[in-house]
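BUG: 3D viewer hangs when loading the predicted structure for this chain

Environment: internal workstation, default settings.
Expected: structure renders.
Actual: progress bar stalls at 90%.

Input used:
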Amino acid sequence: MRQKLKTLLKMAILGGGCLMMGQIAVANFVVAQDGFDRNADTQNSMASTSGSEGPVPVTLDDTQRLQGRFEQSRHLSGFSKAVDSSGIFRFSKKQGLYWRTTDPFDTIMVVNEDGMAQFVDGKPTTMLTTSQNPALKTFFDVLETAMGGNWGSITERKGATLTQDQNQWTLTFLPADDEMARTISQLVLTGDQFVNSLEIKKTNGDLDHIRFREQVIRTP
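Structure tokens produced before the viewer hung:
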């Protein structure tokens, strides 16, 4: 029974991760897993705010990467208790998103504009290209824009609404893409200089809430 519950928990965590996707040839998946812990003395880079307009998001250039830690709560439809997980992430324009869950299980997901791959115990378990699922490209574009601080492109996208006050901004995205709308009904991102939280509402009633912390920008 304990092993069965452990398997169900891992499936729930993997199922949540499969919504943050995009692909890459296997060679591009080789992002050093210990790279997050090296050069820990790199300074935090923050953008300045502009008066009453509120905080200004950090804009990444092609040489920089954003990294930090995350905490995720996945609320499954029909269950009262959330499935919690946590880990580390890295994001850059060139390599895309590296998402490693370290608790309660060790899994890795890599995402970029071509698709996504997921690994468990060092072995690939899921690989999808954007040609197989075009909705992945839309999702990655939204994620890249938010994490990279490039608001110009996303505010022009159908279904996107950006609001702002002195303390934070909120980006709400209602998928207009039919493929994406089959699984995701709404994305809500909030932040200041960085994205602080991401809420993913799914058409089946599931809800993912992800909190980002200890975020820094590093330049190799």
